[in-house]
Amino acid sequence: MSDPLSKRRLKLWIRLLGVTRAAEGQLREFLRVRHDTTLPRFDVMAALYRRREGVTMSELSRMLLVSNGNATAVVDRLEKDGLARRTPSETDRRTVFVSLTPEGLAAFESFAADHEAEVNRIFAGLTEQDIDLLTEILKRMGGPK
Amino acid sequence: MSDPLSKRRLKLWIRLLGVTRAAEGQLREFLRVRHDTTLPRFDVMAALYRRREGVTMSELSRMLLVSNGNATAVVDRLEKDGLARRTPSETDRRTVFVSLTPEGLAAFESFAADHEAEVNRIFAGLTEQDIDLLTEILKRMGGPK
DNA sequence: GTTTAAAATTTCAAGCTTGAAATGATTTTT
DNA sequence: AAAAATCATTTCAAGCTTGAAATTTTAAAC
Question: Where does the HTH marR-type domain start and stop, copy by copy (chains A, B) (predicted)?
Answer without folding.
Answer: 9-143
